Amino acid sequence: MSASASKVSSLSDEQIINRWGFDYYVFKALSAFRDADYTAFTHFTSIIENLVVRPVDGHSDMIVKLRCMQFLSRINNGDKLDLTFEEPKTPLESAVSVLESICRDMSVPPREQERVKQAIIETLIMVCLRSGEFTRAEEVLLRHFSDAEDSAGKKKLFESLIRRRRSSHSVLQLSSYADFKQDMLDFIERLYRVPEPFLLQMLKRSGHPGVSSEPVTSSSQDRQKTSAAAEHHGGVCARLSLHSLRQVYGVLSERYGVSVSFTQLQQELEEEQEQEESPELHLALSETPREQPEPPYAGMTISRLVQEDDSQLSAAEEEEEETQISSPHRIVIPSGPDSDDPEVRTPVRRSDTHNHSSECSPAQICTPARHTQKHNRIVLSSDVEPEDHATSPPSSRRSSRHKQQQKSVHSAGESALVSSPAHPSSPASVRRSDRDTQNQSSESECVMEVEDGGSCVQHSTPARPSATDTQRHNRSVTVSSESEDHNSSPAPQTPRRRSSPSSGGAHKRRRARWQDVSGTHENWSDEESLFSATSGRSSKKYSRKMWTVQESEWLKEGVRRFGAGHWEKIRSSFPFTGRTAVNLKDRWRTMLKLRLV
DNA sequence: GTAGGGTTAGCT
DNA sequence: AGCTAACCCTAC
Predict the structure, then answer these.
(1) Between vectors from CA A111 to CA A106 and to CA A116, what angle results, nearest 5°?
(2) Is A578 left (phi over 0), alpha (psi -120 to 50) or beta?
(3) What are the residue boundaries of the Myb-like domain, all occurrences included (predicted)?
(4) In chain A, N or C: fewer CB atoms in 10 Å?
C-alpha cells in the first residue's frame, strides 16, 4: 500500500469532506473580504471556526489559510477598540502578533513585514485618535511605532495630536479603514494565493451553471488537473475511481468470462505505466506502492488528539485509560458515517445524561448548535473519572461540581464558538462584564499535521509546495457572561482533599483534569481567538495563563510524536500561541506530576 | 534549547 | 496560611 493510499485509508470521510469544506469557505471568505462584504466574511469565518472543531484532514496549507483568516479577522475588527482577540491587546495589536507568526512561518521579506506592521500600527493609532482614546494611542505609539527615519514625521504628528487631544485632523481623514483592509488583503494575497478549492473545481466540472462558463472538457490536461486536485485533497477521486473500476470490472469480467483479475490487470497497467511514465495512469491507479515516507499522521484531529492512546503511557496507565474509556459513564456517540472512529467518545455524567443542556448554565451564551459542539468537546476532554459520579458527593459538592461543569462549557478550549465580533450586540455574542474582566477563555483548535521535512505533504500543495513546515495557528475565545458570576464568586473548584500526596494521587489527577476542563481559574481569558474576539479589555497587566485541555492534548501528541525534551519542535508543530518551549516543558512536568500522561 | 530548582499568582 | 500550576532563572 502506498503512502498515499495509506494516508487516505487513515482518513475518515468526515475528515476529507471537512477539508474540502474548509478550503471552500476559506476561498469564499477571502472573496467576500475582497468584495468588501465583511458581513459575509464574518459568516464564512464563523463557519470555518465551527468546521475546524470537527476532525479534518490537516493539510500543510491549512495552517497558512488559518493564519490568513486569523489575520484578516483581526484586521476586519481593528476599528472596534472594545473588542479583543488576545487580551489585553486590541484587534490590530493581535493582528501584529499574527503577522509575526505569518512572517515567521512564511519567510516574508523583513521590509514587507515592517511595512505591513507599520501600516497596522498607524491605523491603530488613527483609530484610537478618532475614538478619543488618546492614552491608548500614546501607548501604541510608544510601544510599537517604528523608529525609522521616514516615520519620524508621522510620529511627531501623532504625538502632537495626542498631546493636544485632537481626534480630528486631515491626516486622520486621509485614509479610510476600508482602504486599509483592502491593503491588508493585498498583502495576504500576495503572500499566499489560495488555490481554487476542490469543491469548486468539481462543481465546475459538473457543468453547474453559474460556476464557470468554461466548457467541461475531458482533455488529458483537465483530467490530470482533476486527479491532481483529488490527490491533493485526499486522494478520494483516485480511490473512488479505482473502487468503481473494481466493481464494474468484477461484473463485466464475470459476464464476459474474463479470467484476468483486476489486480493482475492493474499490475500490467502499472508496468506499462512505468515504461511509459504516464502521469495519468499514475494518478488513476495510485494504489501502487510508492517510495514515500509514511506520514506520521495524516489527518490529525482534535478528537484524535484527545482520544488517541498515548504511546508513552505505561502499560498500567494504558490500562487505566482503557478502563476509563470503557467506563459506564462514557457513552459513545458515533461520529456519523465513520462511527468506528473513536473520536467522539463522550463521557457524560450519569446524572446529566438525560439532557445535555442540563449541563449548561442558563447563562449559556452560545447558540444551540455551538452549544452542542462545545458540550461534546468538553466532556470528551474532561476525563472525569467514574468515581467522581459514583461516589455521590455531598450535595454541596455536587452543586459545586455542577457549577464547574457549567463553567466548563464556557472554557476549556471549547472554542471560539461563542463569540463573533461581527455581532457584538447579538445575544449569542460575547458580552463584556462591566466588572473587571475576569473572562474565561478557551482555546479551540484546528489541529493539523505538518511534519518536519514535509513528509506529510504527500499531496503537494500547488500554491506553496515548499511552504514552511511548521506553521501554527491558534484559535480561542474569551468568554464572558454577565450571568456567570465569575468575579463575585470565585470559580468553584473541586473541594480540597487533605490527603497525602501518595494517597491523594488519584484525587489530584482527577481534580487537575477537572480543572483543566472546567476553567476554574479566572484567567483563561488571555488567549487569542482565531477569528472571534471578545469585547472589553482586561485591566490586568499580567495574569497566569492556564493551560487548556486542547493545549495539553497538543503537548501530549507532540511528546508522542517527537518525544519529551523536544519542546521547541513540539511548540512549532502545533498552533500554540503565547507558549514558549519552556512553558511546554513546565506544563509537561506538571502533567507528569499529576499523572495526566 | 533544555532541565531543574526557585518564585509567584491565584486559589481554597 | 497553605497549596499548586504557571512562570522565572540559571546552569549546562
Answers:
(1) 75
(2) left
(3) 539-592
(4) N
How many Å from the CA of A561 to C1' of B7?
Answer: 32
Rounded Cα–Cα distance for residues A340 and A330 (Å): 16
C1' (C3) to CA (A492) span, angstroms: 16
User: Which residues, by CB, come closer than 7 Å to strand B?
Assistant: A 490-493, 495-496, 520-523, 540, 542-544, 564-569, 581-582, 585-586, 589
Nearest-CA neighbor of A347 among A332, A335, A364?
A332
Closest to A519 measured CA to CA, from A444, A412, A417, A439: A412
Report helix, strand or coil for A279.
helix
Q: Name the protein residue, with chain letter, whose CA is nearest the C1' of C5.
A: A590
Peptide bond before A362: cis, by omega within 30 degrees of 0? no
The H or E element that residue A330 is part of is: strand A330-332
Q: Give the number of other Cβ atoms within 10 Å of residue A391's Cβ.
A: 9
Q: How confident is the model at residue A554 (pLDDT cuts 50, 70, 90)?
A: confident
Per-residue CB contacts under 7 A with strand C, chain A residues 498-527: 501, 504, 508, 512, 515
Give the torsion through C-alpha atoms of A279, A281, A287, A289, to 10 deg.
-50
Strand C reaches within 7 A of the A415 CB: no
Protein CA A443 to sugar C1' C6 (Å): 17
pLDDT tens-digit series, residues A427-486: 333 333 333 333 333 333 333 333 333 333 233 233 333 333 333 333 333 333 333 333
Instruction: Report the predicted TM-score, pTM, of the whole model to 2 decimal places.
Output: 0.46
Q: Nearest-CA neighbor of A553 among A568, A575, A538, A523?
A: A575
Protein CA A436 to sugar C1' B12 (Å): 22
Å: A578 CA to C8 C1': 15
Q: How far apart are CA A2 and CA A153, in angstroms?
A: 61
Q: How far is the CA of A117 from the C1' of C7 (A)?
A: 29
What residue has its CA nearest to the C1' of C9? A582
Q: DSSP for A252-271?
A: HHHHHT--S-HHHHHHHHHH
Task: Please say whether the beta carbons of A63 and A471 come within 8 A.
Answer: yes
Asked if residue A181 lies in contact with residue A212, where contact means CB atoms within 8 angstroms, the answer is no
- pLDDT tens-digit profile of A308-350? 333 333 333 333 333 333 333 332 323 333 333 333 333 333 3
Nearest one of A534, A528, A536, A537 to A420, comparing CA atoms:
A534
Separation of alpha carbons A597 and A593, rounded Å: 9
- Protein-contacted positions of strand B (CB under 7 Å): 1-6, 9-12
Is A223 within 7 A of strand C by CB distance?
no
The answer to whether the beta carbon of residue A545 comes closer than 7 angstroms to any atom of strand C is yes
CA of A552 to C1' of B4 (A): 21
CA A327 – CA A437 distance, rounded (Å): 39
Side chain identity at residue A103, one-letter code: C
Q: From CA A115, how far away is CA A120, in angstroms rounded? A: 9
- Strand C nucleotides, any atom under 7 Å from protein beta carbons: they are 4-10
Provide, in whole angstroms, the distance separating residue A546's CA from nucleotide C9's C1': 21
